[in-house]
Amino acid sequence: MIAFSFQVEPHVVLEVTPEATLREIHEAYRRQAKKHHPDTGGTAWAFRIVSQAYEVLSTARLEQASRRVTEAEARSRSPRPESATTAAQNEHEEAPNQPTDPRRRVGVEKLWVRYESEPLWLIQDPMRDEHSLSCSLNFKWPDPSFERVPVESAEVEPILNQLAGVFEAMCGKTTVDTSRIRINDDSFTGWLSYSSGEKAVAAYQLLQEMLLSYGFAVRKWDRDLLIPHTWI
Fold it and tell me: What is the rounded CA–CA span in Å between residue 208 and residue 199?
């Protein structure tokens, strides 16, 4: 029996360009998988080729995102716990030396869920039981706190792809408990939940670095959700 081997260009298989984003690769894979899956009239051989092409391209994109995150992480400072007073003062805080293009402004909400009697600075202490706090980072584009600035349709897709790449990288580089993403035609929402304030603060530092590296302006605010002990 003679075995034949050959190389298949993954971009050709999925019908994407070499510059395709992770989102475009995923969407192309879904189209080709539906077309070539044995259950929908395709062949097992063709489906394996499609799956292999997707694995090659998606892995390459994730490794690229990981390198960017590692570089951003190296530039980021060690996070410091904020006091309750500082958290109040940091409402609608913007990072220094940001891009000024209003079309690329991203809003990041840091949502703290804590017991009513516990001050914010105490539950951010890394020695505390992590289960006493849940904290999430919710980042949105366009920033919902500002009047919406018109964006050309040709610019929307690259922005959404960049934000999707940041979200994927955050899921891979931080200790996320749960995550959720929603991408519409002209808006993006990413939700990342962490089990402690320490992890969330570190994740925010990284998220800010990544967004700035893509040319986004970042505006952050804290929101405190208090849970009465009587509810427990």
Answer: 14
DSSP line for 154-209: HHHHHHHHHHHHHHHHHHHHS--SEEEEEE-SS-EEEEEEESSHHHHHHHHHHHHH
CB-based contacts of 180, cutoff 8 Å, min separation 6 = 190, 191
| Cα 195 from Cα 176, distance rounded (Å) | 8
Its CATH architecture, for the domain 10-75, is Orthogonal Bundle (1.10)
For 12-21, write each residue's pLDDT tens digit.
999 999 888 7
Q: Give me the percent of the chain exceeding a pLDDT of 70.
A: 66
Residues 6+ apart with CB under 8 A from 124: 81, 82, 133, 196, 197, 198, 201
Q: Any idea where the domains of the chain sit in the sequence?
A: 10-75, 86-231
| pLDDT tens for each residue of 91-128 | 455 555 566 788 899 999 988 776 555 544 444 444 44
Q: 140 pairs with which residues across the strands?
A: 107, 189
- Sorted by sequence, the CB contacts under 8 Å of residue 21 that are 6+ apart come out as 61, 161, 164, 165
CA distance 4 to 196: 54
pTM above 0.90, yes or no: no
Token digits of residue 221 = 């605010």
Query: How many residues does this entry show for the chain?
Result: 232
